[in-house]
Amino acid sequence: MREFLTKLATIDRRIIYLLTFLVVCLPMLFKMIMPIRISEEVKRAFKEIDNLKPGSIVMISIDYDAASEPELQPMLIAILRHCFSKDIKVILLGQWALGLPLGEMALNQVAKEYNKKYGEDYVNLGYRPGYTALMVGIGKELRDFFPTDYKGIPIDSFPFMRKVRNYQQIDILVGLEAGATGDAWVQFAGARFNQKIILGTTGVVAPDMFPYLQAKQIVGLIGGLQGAAEYETLVKKAGSAILGMPAQSFVHLLIIIFIIVGNIGYFILRRKK
Amino acid sequence: MIRHQLPLIITFFTGMLLIITFFIPHKPFGDLEQRFLIWYSIISGFTVLLGLDSLVRYHLGKLKKEFNIHSFILILSLFLTLILGFYSWFRFKTPFALNSPFMFLYTYVIIPLQATMFALLAFFIASAAYRAFRARTFEATLLLIAATIVMLGRVPIGGYISKGIAYFISFLFKIPYEKISETQIFAIVSDWIMNIPQNAAKRGIFIGTALGGIAMSIRIILGIERTYITK
Amino acid sequence: MFLIIFLIFQNSYFQNIKGYDTPADEGGSITLEWKIKEEFLSDTNPIKFFEIYRKEKEKEFINVGFVLSQYNTYEDKGLIDGKDYYYQIWAIREKDTLKSEIIGPIYSKAQWFNTNRLNVLIITIILFVVFLYYIEKAKKGEKLFVRKIAGLDAIDDAVGRATEMGRPILFSFGLGVITDVVTIAALSILSKIAKKCAEYGTRLLIPNYDPIVMAAAQETVKEAYLEANRPDLYKESDITYLTSDQFGYAAGCDGIILREKPGAIFWQGYFFAESLILAETGHSVGAIQIAGTTAITQLPFFIAACDYTLIGEEMFAASCYLKPEPHMLGSLKGEDFLKAIILVIFVVSTLIATLAVIFKDFTFINNLFQFINNIFTVK
């Protein structure tokens, strides 16, 4: 028995990988659903968009690529559903060139569900290099960086875009972040131009954004797959985030079991020595 | 002599100029920061050519010495992506048009590859946590407990476990179960950990890093730090 | 100086309409402020948005913009300095439109100093003075104590271990670019490692994410090998560009680690989500790993997976630690002094903020709290 318990401190990596694989796959294969608790920061983000009147404008920045798509794409789809259901206009742009196709896919998917028309209800401005120069530039005049949309059509040919000159005509900026671009939005758009910002981030980046939330530099925070699942729950339309939560739950539980098992083995080994 | 001094003079002059322009809105100083950022974007675009040259030369060199399947696939993929991108750009006005061949490549090759690499993290986190989270010291034990609480608090299963604990407490202390069943203990403690001690520690590290960065920047501007310049 | 025009006589719908040259700007901008009288704010006929109209002398009014109803200011940009402009504001309501009186003439002007950033200027001057003071102090021969940094002390052991095992050393800057200060800090660490590798004859592999960083690394390593009198050992093909894609870079590094099986790995720079993939792969081949990053989110992964980790500012201290010259140590000391000042400010301002909450009616404490808040706000 002691030998077995000691071996617990040195389980082969491959067994850990195999168990992790099974624990992730099985809940998704059986399509398990679990109730989602809504956190305060996601509730705040939801309320901010929910309180907007029809015809308001939300700008969404795609600052992620395919690697973070499983976490952030459900967030984007849920937010678009929320906006379109309330007849809120959407402007899409991005700081990561490889993320814009994901934004385009989401727009096409959700626009069809709500019969929204390109140019009347939403516009995709695409990607322009510039990063912080672009963020400051939008505060002065949007057309300095985006005279046309991603297809090359002048943005003044879209009715609702004619009056949009800078952040003052944009109700909320939603930044979907896989890296450090959220800090730049807060620093430039938020601090310099008082733009209202909601950040949606991957689980790893979310803890970094809590200071901004506490300091009221952002008005809402949607963190990781859990945050995306919470937003889907609030919007009352299940997506891949809600479907992914059971798998995440069981993996967390499995890691905790590994930690406990590893510590049992460690203590017995220490006693032996 | 001038070869060693010139980069230092340029660094000092540019650094001081950008610091000064932060305080002077009047033209031409006011928009210098923007201008420099745009120049940097343009220059960094050209550095892609530098990288491309290094990559192609290295792998073509390898192929010349001896046929290497990995180098061959790399060169083939590079040029195929380039050709498809240009073709899609000319044919559909943007390479990211949904029905373009470049988007086909993006949707069925790039997205799955990137998502797969990111998904590897799940396995590595499991093995790293198993190996590293040992209660060797008091601080390590504290870290362990905090990690467990946060992991359970951030997922729905924590709610089920909270209910189980509530049932156990109601049985032990004869408290009505209905009063405490909705208390999501892990979520509450997890939120507290994320909002208070985690934030405080992060801010401390952040301030230290920021000060270190300022010190480093001042050393670079004043020419004290010269590692980026070769003799 | 800016020109302020006040509307003195009473307007039917608006009150306190002001138009003035936007302060502390590069010119070409006029700011408008207004307030709708209480009696015209109603839930049954709410204001949807405000439209701004501008005209020049002897010309017609044109619509220059709009702001949402929650705003009561507008900044009109792109104007010609010195030219007179006239403004009128329309409040567009559900059922009707309220028009303000015409205000003007107003003209814009550029300012030479941004008064909103006076606090930043004072703090910047204090920073420079403190650093220069301690650098001078160190140059005069004063001995300055620097605590041990385990990760930096372990560099020699790590290089020695790899040499004994006959395995190469891998160094990575992560996803940093040359404009990141942390990458320049990593270059100073690389310089030391490269010199040691040259002395021991150990192979040094450096896969790169950024082409400019690659060029800088090549120059740094070449120079280190020259300093060690072993230029023959320098191989440019060991310092290569991989890709500027995050996970492509991670995959490339992993492949190099699994094929070459380095004895020591140095992860020094800015990392994102790929950090654990890299560190775990390094662990799987039995390499000793020394990491250093300012990416706070990745520190836990490196601490879990690596043998030594340089946390945040320890990386910036590396160049001072590895080459303890007086002016380097002086700047380190200046940094510590500033940190002490910041700690004192924290304690004092937390106390005042707490008192301001407890004694809400005490004007003095609330004013003091606002004053401290304004000092540390950057506009």
UniProtKB/TrEMBL annotation, chain A:
<keyword id="KW-0812">Transmembrane</keyword>
<keyword id="KW-0472">Membrane</keyword>
<protein>
    <submittedName>
        <fullName>Uncharacterized protein</fullName>
    </submittedName>
</protein>
<feature type="transmembrane region" description="Helical">
    <location>
        <begin position="250"/>
        <end position="269"/>
    </location>
</feature>
<keyword id="KW-1133">Transmembrane helix</keyword>
<feature type="transmembrane region" description="Helical">
    <location>
        <begin position="15"/>
        <end position="34"/>
    </location>
</feature>
Automatic annotation (TrEMBL), chain B:
<feature type="transmembrane region" description="Helical">
    <location>
        <begin position="36"/>
        <end position="55"/>
    </location>
</feature>
<protein>
    <submittedName>
        <fullName>Uncharacterized protein</fullName>
    </submittedName>
</protein>
<keyword id="KW-0812">Transmembrane</keyword>
<feature type="transmembrane region" description="Helical">
    <location>
        <begin position="102"/>
        <end position="130"/>
    </location>
</feature>
<feature type="transmembrane region" description="Helical">
    <location>
        <begin position="67"/>
        <end position="90"/>
    </location>
</feature>
<feature type="transmembrane region" description="Helical">
    <location>
        <begin position="142"/>
        <end position="161"/>
    </location>
</feature>
<feature type="transmembrane region" description="Helical">
    <location>
        <begin position="204"/>
        <end position="222"/>
    </location>
</feature>
<keyword id="KW-0472">Membrane</keyword>
<feature type="transmembrane region" description="Helical">
    <location>
        <begin position="7"/>
        <end position="24"/>
    </location>
</feature>
<keyword id="KW-1133">Transmembrane helix</keyword>
TrEMBL record, chain C:
<dbReference type="InterPro" id="IPR003961">
    <property type="entry name" value="FN3_dom"/>
</dbReference>
<keyword id="KW-0472">Membrane</keyword>
<protein>
    <submittedName>
        <fullName>Fibronectin type III domain-containing protein</fullName>
    </submittedName>
</protein>
<dbReference type="InterPro" id="IPR036116">
    <property type="entry name" value="FN3_sf"/>
</dbReference>
<keyword id="KW-1133">Transmembrane helix</keyword>
<dbReference type="InterPro" id="IPR046642">
    <property type="entry name" value="DUF6754"/>
</dbReference>
<feature type="domain" description="DUF6754">
    <location>
        <begin position="109"/>
        <end position="359"/>
    </location>
</feature>
<dbReference type="InterPro" id="IPR013783">
    <property type="entry name" value="Ig-like_fold"/>
</dbReference>
<dbReference type="Pfam" id="PF20539">
    <property type="entry name" value="DUF6754"/>
</dbReference>
<feature type="transmembrane region" description="Helical">
    <location>
        <begin position="169"/>
        <end position="190"/>
    </location>
</feature>
<feature type="transmembrane region" description="Helical">
    <location>
        <begin position="337"/>
        <end position="359"/>
    </location>
</feature>
<keyword id="KW-0812">Transmembrane</keyword>
<feature type="transmembrane region" description="Helical">
    <location>
        <begin position="118"/>
        <end position="135"/>
    </location>
</feature>
